[in-house]
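Notes from the 1:1 (GR / supervisor)

We went over the backlog. Supervisor wanted to see one worked example end to end before approving the batch request, so GR pasted a single chain during the call. The sequence is below; no edits were made to it. Supervisor asked that the structure be written out right there so they could see what the output format looks like.
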Amino acid sequence: MRTLTKLDSESRHARRELDDHIKGSGPLARHTVDSDGRRQAGSSSHHESARKHVTGKASYIDDLKTPEDALHVALGLSPAAFGTLTTLELDAVRQAEGVVDVITFADVPGHTDIGPVFPGDPIFVDRDVSYAGQCLFAVAATSFQAARRAVTLATIEIDERPALLDPVAAVEQGELVRPTHVQERGDWQTTLAHAQTLVEGTLFVGGQEHLYLEGQACVVFPTEDEGVLVHTSNQHPSETQKLVAEVLGIPFHAVTVEVRRMGGGFGGKETQASPWACIAAIIARRTGRATRLRLPRTADMQVTGKRHPFHNRYRLAIDERGVIQGGDITVIGDCGYSPDLSDAIVDRAMFHADNAYSLGNARVTGHRAKTHTASNTAFRGFGGPQGMMAIEAAMDDIARQIGEDPLTVRKRNFYRKGCETTHYGQTVDQIALLHTLVEKLEKDSDYWARRNAMTAFNASSPVIKKGLALTPVKFGISFTAQHLNQAGALLHVYTDGSVMINHGGTEMGQGLHTKICQVVARELGLDLDDVRISATRTDKVPNTSPTAASSGADLNGMAARDAASRLRERLFDFAAAHFEGGLDREGMRLEEGELIAGFGESEYHLPWGELVQTAYLNRVSLSEKGFYATPLIHYDRSMGQGRPFYYFAFGAAVSEVSVDTLSGEYRVDRVDVLHDVGDALNPAIDIGQVEGGFIQAMGWLTSEELKWSDKGALLSSSAATYKIPTFGDLPPVFNVSLMEGHPNSMASLYRSKAVGEPPFMLGISVWSALRDALSSLTHYQCSPALDTPATPERVMLAAQAIRPKAL
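Structure output shown during the call:
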């Protein structure tokens, strides 16, 4: 008892030290925007809607005004996870006050399956119930409250059967939403059979709720040509256009989908925004009235999919220095009840099972397990983070096995000269950048001095243990579905010289529209204020790809650049032929709002506005479309080999934690990040993306725990039961820098690199630091088992499990 009291006293003292440290810490990392200059691509400019955001003037779906007779929709959801719908009695619902229409599976005029890639997603249940929260019917009423009250009057009977909730068991039983896929390189069997040392492990990686600030929402207006206008919070307007048209049984051109901005998406609105637009569209066409559908937060969390939970296994052959010679890695994605995007998501987990390390002769196998939960879907990183977790766990395990620091082991295993090829056959370029970036962060963060101080601290502190980890990121950029790597843009120049750009990407707060405006401003030599962007609409730029895979700026920026450069060249041709005396066509340029021709004393200046006016009066088109398709990428699925990515983005993070090993409580004390964005399009926005991605990943790996009942009902269905990081969870020291002087080796947009998803994986360093702290309980001889999210409960249990190994 005296020992426990002493330890508790030390624990309290250590917490006070942490509190004092936090109170005295400096501000978070910041990057100021440029207040003067042209603010074109490559400079730091504020978000194009920043003032609207902070003043409340930015319009979201719920801010859109509708006619007084607009209808409001509520959904009837299945209370059971698996079974057969035997009774659905809705007479009382139809007779309820305010109810105008009630629709079920039988009322769908066109297609009833709205699976985005593969079939399997019925818009309503017909007979088979596949998850708790699946949509049975929809009610349209004169108010949202009336619709919600009416839903409760339905009589629902389901012949319930035991739900399959274990993805590992599902794979063993052959319950898959898509076939298993394998990638392999070299004779991995022989390598494992003759291994000097084998490192083996298993790891459960939890899912994650998107918890976007703006939930799933849409407003649909019927149009006079038997079509609909759909306003939706949506990452893939063209797919929604297609599905709405197919559900209504009308041509695609009769459906227009518009997205001005989203209050967050993170992948959760790539495919799973479409069902609600389809339901609202059916009602709007049946009633001839504007129809609004927005999901309450609890319903939103129940009916939509999450980040895929994964079960990973690894067997690696290593030499005496801990260098991987080969291995066998298996990833099992918990896909939920239908395919959705799971084929591509598990593929990307497989592509990133190596992270930044050469696997040698290796096989990677990916299973797509079918379970009775909502169909899991895209989430920032799109399977990449889950795939990386296994190899990062292995790096820590190898380090403990050979008795060296995990950073040393990681660096030895990096892709390097002679080991540049991935297990799927792509050569990793810019290998030197990976090494340089990690070495710079290692030095700038004072890694080794902190490691030595931490080891000394842990030797004298029986309860509070500190952990430190530096983990890298190598993330491939491109859609792995080749046809999605294309984009279009539409550019208009008006006779006063102002410019309007439209493109196929959607704005969800990531600053895509800002970057596109900067691109156009740079190409036309204008100030950013001269360029305006309009809502993304399917009747302006058709057949667009989703804003996903970190490709928004890469694809749409290149399309906008193509449109602007084509228009610029047309204006140059006109000016050279039109103005008296002739202008030097070769030396023409647009700079600071002027057309400039020639050099030195013979230099000719013409204001942009005058150039545009003159071109218009001479019947020169002031509108242009642009297009871009990513070159070089390919993947042979039958062989499991190819080049699925145009390039790789790199990064690294150092995280330091303090852990109370009795209670499992911990704090992230300091984070240092160095991230590669090539030549940044907008450093301020890019740093914001890095910061946000890191914290979101930290939440995924620490506090965000999804819980289901044994019958398949989601229990963590509100912000009261699902814990995302708050401002108070930010590390008190948070240093974020962009790697400078290393442009993209590929011909990307101004040699920049994508920044949406790659920073997310930097958060793995927090989880690895927690394992490092727990390993100190055994004097760094053993590596703890720590599934994610690493909640305080899991950390406490891991500490209890590993402590006896020190004896």
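Supervisor's comment: Residues 77 and 133 are 5 Å apart (CA to CA).
Batch request approved.
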